[in-house]
Amino acid sequence: MIMRLLVVEDDPRLREAIVDTLMLKGHEVCEAPNGVEAIAIVRSQNLDLVLSDINMPGMDGLELLQTIKQEHPWLPVVLMTAYGDVGQAVKAMQRGANDYLMKPFELQELDALLRPFNNDAPVADDSEPVCEALASQQLFQLAQRVAQTDSTVLISGESGTGKEVLARYIHQQSDRRHQPFIAINCAAIPENMLEAMLFGYEKGAFTGAYNAMPGKFEQAEGGTLLLDEITEMDLGLQAKLLRVLQERQVERLGGKKVLDLDVRIVATTNRELADYVAEGKFREDLYYRLSVFPLQWLPLRERKDDILPLAGRLLAHHARKMKRPVPRLMADAEQKLLAHPWPGNVRELDNTMQRALIMQTGPQLFANDFILTPVPKNRQENISVATPVMTEVMVDDGELGNDLRHREVELIVRALKEEPSRKEAADRLGISPRTLRYKMAKLRDEGVDVEAMLVS
Which residues lie closer than 8 Å to 179 by C-beta, 6 or more apart? Predict the structure, then answer.
């Protein structure tokens, strides 16, 4: 599929090279030398993706990202950063970037990066799901069976479990696999814009509709439409969605022409949908229309056999993007990963692997290379095992105790140097700002002046 792309880069030679490369691939490409001009283009044109540098004068890439996500939350943004500046890349992902690219990069890297956003592009081998746990194997067997039909599928599971991975697997195993797979996150798009994104609109249908735009239903014609986090849709729009699903027809906002649809629907939710129906927050008729074939995606802590294979794949993926050799997980690191309850599921595991790669100092990853996210208090009673993060390590004095203490100091100093504020440094370390202040005071009492180390 031809994509409409915007390239934002202040270096004219590099911008020209990227634009020429993308145009040779058949894409329609706009370009801007800075964030201010980029915003003007975003507001006036219908784009499929923005590819922007981070370090630019005036409005930098992070500010541009923030503005785009506020005004056009559905528009994918990929940020480019200099080789070795991993901290900027991680910060971009935390602020909502869809992906990042390290400069300099090869043509193949750019192709691979755009592939997930191009609905007609072939799927890479490493997108095949990890299903080592018995429960996962059984789930994907069911998914493979329902993929052979056109039945509507409702996938439920906690946030971060990988429900979209399962939805894509169903599409890939179906007869529709050569047609588009279109996903829309109902929770990420403002209520007043979601209807226009789903059903499309004609020019002048509302303020800001400068051009006609096909909706997600039209874009998914012949393929699969994923309605992600569908429970976040308001009741009024649920009624309109129900009519489209029943009639298999859609009409653009401001339009008069009724379009017939041939689309397979997959919906996901992180809530107990039956309870939501009972509370009057979700239409019962839509619930039955969607739950023709329900699938339950278990949390990561209940499929422990998937943890290490997933960790290995994520490590390899991020090491490749950071242009580093893939480190080896040591036994104590594996035990730490297996013991953690992963309240954030695969998304949390992905973040943990990125942090470990940033902190690594050699070809191996040990347990103390992993900074694990604390389990939120409201989740602790529902999770049987929890692993504390950067808590006091009770060890005897000696070589091991000194090594652990030195490692903690190193992590704290690095976070304080690389993050713009104490709060963000604490977030990166997985602790509260108050805990960070306490640790720095305790280290100062022990003769370790962290403040002085920041200046050196």
Answer: 220, 221, 222, 223, 224
Residues 61 and 206 in one domain: no
Helix (H) or strand (E) holding 399: helix 399-418
**CATH code of 109's domain:** 3.40.50.2300
Q: Which DSSP letter does residue 220 get?
A: T
* Domain-embedded: residue 314: no
Going from the C-alpha of 271 to that of each of 124, 129, 157, 252, 285, the distances in angstroms are: 30, 23, 7, 30, 17
Task: Please tell me whether residues 12 and 154 are part of one structural domain.
Answer: no
Q: Parallel, antiparallel, or unpaired: how do β-strands 249-251 and 258-260 relate?
A: antiparallel
**pLDDT tens per residue across span 260-303:** 999 999 999 999 888 889 999 999 999 999 999 999 999 999 99
Q: What is the pTM of this model?
A: 0.65
For residue 116, what are its two tokens?
Answer: 């997930």
Across 20-51, b (16+ Cβ under 10 Å) vs e yields: eebeebebebbbbbbbebbbeebeeeebbbbb
CA–CA gap between residue 374 and residue 387 (Å, rounded): 7
Q: Hey, what amino acid is at 394?
A: M
Q: Is 9 found in the same domain as 36?
A: yes
Query: What is the rounded CA–CA span in Å between residue 216 and residue 75?
Result: 13
- What pLDDT, in 10s, does the model give residues 304-344? 999 999 999 999 888 888 877 888 898 899 999 999 999 99
Q: Please indicate, yes or no, if residue 375 is contained in any of the structural domains.
A: yes
CA 427, 430, 431: angle at the middle one, nearest 5?
A: 85
Query: Residue 252 sits in a domain of what CATH number?
Result: 3.40.50.300
C-alpha 308: how far from chain center: 20
CA distance 286 to 243: 9
Whether 289 and 353 map to the same domain: the answer is no
Q: How far apart are CA 179 and CA 359, in angstroms?
A: 41
Residue showing tokens 């509507």: 152
